Amino acid sequence: MNCLDKCIVGIITLAGFVLGLNGAVVNAAPIEIRLAHSVAADTLKGRAVNLLAKRVAQSLDGKVVIKVFSKGELYTEKNVLQALRNGRLEMAVPSLAKFVRWTPEFQVFSLPYMFKSRAVLHQVIDGEIGAKILQKLERDKMMGLAVWDNGFKHFTNNTKEIKNPKDMEDLVFRIMLSRVLEAQFKAVGAVPMIIPFNRVKAALKNGEVDGQESTWSSFYSSGSADLQKYITETNHGYLGYLLVTNRQFWLNLPTDIRTELEAIIKEVTLWARQQSLELNQQYRQKLLDDKRVHITELSQEQLAVFKKAFEPVRLDYINFIGRDIYDGVEALNNSN
After folding, report:
1. If DSSP codes are grouped into helix, strand and coil, which group holds residue 233?
2. For the chain, which domains are there?
3. First to last CA, the chain
4. Cystine design at 136: which of 18, 94, 103, 260 (Cβ 3.0–4.6 Å)?
5. pLDDT digits over 240-292, tens only?
6. CA distance 245 to 261
7. Is 317 exposed, middle or buried (0-12, 13-18, 19+ CB in 10 A)?
8. Helix and strand tally (H, E) in the chain?
């Protein structure tokens, strides 16, 4: 074989090697994202998760696949974040209160009457304050991607109509694990009882607790409307979820993939917020129409009494969430 022939063979061999590499890229397995949450697929959170998975499948053309595990089938509320931090899971959507263990500043979202309006809440989440709080998760191997609304909560119970904070004295209310919520109920003489989400319905049914706090959509979709007689429209506290990922996994994604995912997440977040607003309005109207539950609508004067009763709770937590964060939220409240 002369020199020319050897060169041709070398070129062909190299071309085959390159084609092989290209073929490997083309045929590479998709990036798999396991996303776990604790509720049913037909809830507000479940719908948002499923929309995210669908949009990723459509836009990324098989390069990324989101595998959804609902109703705690892969990890429970108790251990889902530990699994995420350890790299056994890529994404989760717990309530914001679940992150207080690592980042106390998240307690600002649980404080009663902390946000003047939904608009102020979103300014906090989408602005410098929200970015500052989310950034603190990175030291614990997590990265917050988006906050999805459930809505603002109201007090429900099975004992009596609540028109005044004094009406809550000695009533037992279910809460999730949260020092803020514990302090909130104790401030008005009520008894908080920590009960996991999957046991709430049973606790209401067997009288273990008198009531709970819930958004209109959660109250209706969970079946609580069949188990509670009274609901007082207070809009006292926010319930939201954080779409969170393992930090190392996220940073190791190809830049173009990560950019596309960020755009899709933003789109789904806007949808989730609007869906939350519409669903809460729809379920409120359904409850008014079917009259299964007595709904107490408070005057501005009555609401002012509730706000004053919970003011000590907000002031007690300034040091936990940080004076800068507290004052930043108050500044937004005063300017809107």
Report:
1. strand
2. 18-335 (3.40.190.170)
3. 84
4. 103
5. 999 999 999 999 999 999 999 999 999 999 999 999 999 999 999 999 998 98
6. 12
7. buried
8. 13, 11
